Amino acid sequence: MKLKFKFERIHFLLSFCTIVLILFFVKCTHPDVLTLGMLDKNKETDSVTAPPADSVLQHSRFVDSLILRPRASLCLLDKQGNPVKNRVTSVSDFNTVFPDMNDVQLATAQRLGISQIADRNEAVHRKKDLVYIDDNPFYDIKPLHHSIPYLVPRAATLLTEISRAFIDSLASKGIPFHKLLVTSVLRTRHDVERLRRVNHNASEQSCHQYGTTFDISYNHFVRVMDPDGPELPQTWGVTLKSVLAEVLEDQRELGTCYVKYEYKQSCFHITAR
C-alpha cells in the first residue's frame, strides 16, 4: 500500500526556517565566507569588463570644473583706499618651470583634440568642431602664415582665461594695460609641410594639428591706450614677459595646461589639458 505525502504550507515554512537557521549559523561561525566570495566575484567581473582608466579624459573633467568656476573679484585698493601694487616676481628659470616637451603635449592633444586636417579646404568642413578666434578685448592674433585662427572650445576658453588673468595681474601691479599676442594656432598637414621647408626644427608631429595648442609671444605685446587720456610711461618688455610667466606658472600648477618655453621661437608653446 503506497502512502501519499502531501506537501502543505506548514512543510514549506518549516523548510524555509531550517535553511535560514543554517545560513545564520554559517554566517555567525564564518562571517567572511559570503563576503569574500562576493568580493572575489566582483574583482573577477571588474577585471574582465572594466576598461582601463583614461587619465587624460579624467583630468580634462577636473580642468573643466576649474575653468567654469566663478572668477575671483579683482581687488585694486587696500582698506585705506590706496592702490594695491603687487611686486613682479617672474619665475625661477623659464626652462625649468616650463619643461613640457612635444611628446608630453602631443599625447594630450591627440586625445582631446580633433583629428588632423589635410588642408584649409578640409578645414572649412570641420568648423563645427572648432571655435574661431580673432582680435578681442583680451588678446590679438598676429597675421598668420602657417596656421589658421581656430581652436577646439576648451583651448579657446583657456586662451581667454590666460589673457584675462594677465590683464588682471598687470592691473594689480600698477602696470599699464597690454594685451597678449597669439602667434600660432591650428595647423593643417599642408601648413606643417610648408613650415618645415623654412624651419627645419619644426616638428612633423605638431600639437598644433589638433586644435588644442597655441603660441603666445613673450617679446611682443599690444599696448592699449586711451587717446584722450594722459601719456603713460613705457613698460619694459622683460617686465611684461615676467608677468606672463607668473600667470602661466599658476595655470600649469593648477593643471589646466602644458607649457614649453620656446627660446628660438620667442614664445610660450601651450596645450590645453
Task: Kindly describe this structure.
With 273 residues, this protein is α+β, with helices and mostly antiparallel strands. Strands 2, 4, 5, 6, 7 and 8 form a 6-stranded mixed β-sheet that branches. A two-stranded antiparallel sheet has the order 1-3. α7 crosses α9. The radius of gyration is 30 Å and the shape is extended. The mean pLDDT is 87.
Keywords:
273 residues, alpha+beta, six-stranded mixed β-sheet, 9 helices, extended
Could you write a compact summary of the structure shown?
The protein is an alpha+beta fold.
Strand and helix layout:
Layout: H1 9-29, H2 33-49, H3 55-67, H4 94-97, H5 102-112, H6 120-123, E1 131-132, E2 139-141, E3 150-151, H7 153-172, E4 178-184, H8 189-198, E5 213-217, E6 222-223, H9 237-254, E7 257-262, E8 267-272
Parallel strand pairs: 2-4
Antiparallel strand pairs: 1-3, 4-5, 4-6, 5-8, 7-8
Helix pairs in contact: 7-9
Radius of gyration: 30 Å
Helix tally? 9
The helix content is 40-55%
Beta-strand residue percentage: 5-15%
Return the average pLDDT rounded to an integer.
Answer: 87
Number of strands: 8
